[in-house]
Amino acid sequence: MSIFDVRHQDRAHRIIQRALASRRMPHAYLFAGPEGVGREMLAVRLAHLLLCPSPVEVDWPTAMEKDAVTDVRPSAACGQCADCRLLAAGTHPDLAVIHRQLNRQHPDALIRRQKALFLGVDVIRHFLIDRIGTRPARGRAKVFIIREAERLNDAAQNALLKSLEEPPPGTTLILITASLDQMLPTTRSRCQLVPFVALPAPFVAEQASRLRSETAADEVRYAAHHADGSLGGALRYIDDSLFAMKREWGKQLAILARPPAGWSAHALAGPFQEDAGRLAKSFAQRDPDVSDTDARREGARTLLAVLADFFRDALATASACQAERVNADQGDVIDALAGWGQPKLGDAIRQLAQAESWLDRNAHVELTLETLFIRLARLAPRPQPGRARAL
Ligand SMILES: [Zn+2]
Question: At a CB cut-off of 8 Å and minimum separation 6, what does 91 contact?
Answer without folding.
Answer: none
